[in-house]
Design brief:
about 5% helix; mainly beta; 4-stranded antiparallel beta sheet; single chain; 7-stranded mixed beta sheet
Length: about 120
């Protein structure tokens, strides 16, 4: 069974930092690209970031570029998202996702599985 278990969410003040983790299992993790989406209440799902199968060519949505960093550890089947300078508009449920391709080309359209997500709330 394919599983993507996100964790690390919580309440943080504006300007703070948080690190999300995603534990992957049930597929050949180091053969595919992985990344993150988020969805705020009442809003459409938004692509956040992607990293290719070998941990290269990270990409980001304009809304988080310069503040978030995606990484992966293939030896541990883990994907991470370090979030800095958090803003109230970053409040959302964050989902870890994967594709069946090695690269991040059209990741938002080609993602074939995602996990349950973890809630991040940025508020003072």
């Amino acid at each position: 069974d394919v599983q993507l278990q996100a964790s690390g969410g919580g309440l943080v003040q504006p300007g703070g930092s948080l690190r999300l983790s995603c534990a992957a299992s049930g597929f050949s993790f180091d053969d595919v690209a992985a990344g993150w989406f988020r969805q705020a209440p009442g809003k459409e799902r938004e692509w956040v970031s992607c990293i290719n199968f070998a941990g290269g060519s990270p990409s980001y949505a304009d809304s988080v570029k310069g503040r978030f960093t995606v990484s992966r550890d293939n030896a541990k089947n883990m994907v991470y998202l370090e979030m800095n300078s958090l803003k109230p508009e970053d409040t959302a449920v964050y989902y870890c996702a994967k594709t069946s391709r090695r690269l991040c080309f059209r990741f938002a359209d080609s993602s074939d599985f995602w996990g349950q997500g973890t809630l991040v709330t940025v508020s003072s």
